[in-house]
Design a protein that fits this description.
By secondary structure, the chain is mainly alpha-helical. It is 48% helix and 7% strand. This is HTH CENPB-type domain-containing protein.
């Protein structure tokens, strides 16, 4: 037999039947000249006398403190875009840098571009505030710090071009010039490439970069951190 205490513990927390948000919406409908109290009461699922009580307490309801059921729009004003031009320029810069999967973007890069695009605003803020702005900017634009999935001396597109040239040269050699042993001399090996394109790590750059959420591949070219350190 189930204990009454366990049954009570598994019950969901109670929620108010009529939230402040619902009350304010009903009062707005009631203020309209084309609606009646009976129609509004039927629309919101409340009694007509309840509507009159809400109307009497309209000022108190509107001035009530934000809660889980009703949030004042001013309470979340700090998360809205307060610097739209700056964020637009930062977003365009990130898209331009990452469009070919060539350069990586770090948080320090974004701070540097922030100081370039809006020097007065950057100078008026502390580093902690600027970092918080960068975090909110990334979240609003579905950007995040991603682990790099491919890092080498060549871009993925360059490797695909090498592979295409190699396959086409082999087909041409086999179809037009006959089998490879048929050819003699140095012309036999003009289009033989290293197919795995093994990377040679001259410098150990970072393992992460800023990129869009959901990107299937996160590519960079070896040595891009040194480029940004010279900016």
């Amino acid at each position: 037999m189930t204990s009454p205490i366990l049954v009570f513990a598994h019950k969901k927390p109670r929620s108010p039947k009529n939230t402040n948000k619902k009350k304010l919406r009903a009062l707005k409908l009631l203020e309209a000249t084309s609606t009646t109290a009976v129609a509004v009461a039927a629309a919101v699922g409340a009694d007509r006398s309840t509507l009159h009580r809400w109307k009497k307490d309209a000022d108190r309801i509107a001035a009530s403190s934000p809660s889980q059921c009703f949030a004042d729009p001013r309470a979340r004003a700090h998360v809205y875009v307060q610097q739209p031009e700056l964020e637009q320029r930062l977003l365009e810069w990130i898209v331009n840098i990452r469009k070919n999967g060539y350069l990586c973007v770090s948080t320090n890069c974004l701070l540097l571009m922030h100081s370039k695009f809006s020097p007065a605003l950057f100078a008026s803020r502390s580093r902690a505030v600027s970092l918080m702005f960068i975090r909110h900017f990334l979240k609003r634009n579905r950007l995040t710090v991603r682990r790099i999935t491919h890092k080498g001396r060549k871009k993925r597109s360059d490797m695909e071009e090498v592979a295409n040239v190699f396959s086409h040269s082999i087909l041409r050699t086999v179809e037009d010039d006959g089998i490879l042993p048929y050819i003699n001399g140095p012309d036999k090996y003009p289009s033989v490439y290293n197919m795995d394109q093994t990377a040679v790590y001259v410098d150990m750059n970072g393992r992460t970069t800023v990129d869009f959420v959901g990107s299937q591949t996160v590519d960079v070219v070896q040595g891009t951190v040194a480029i940004f350190s010279m900016l």
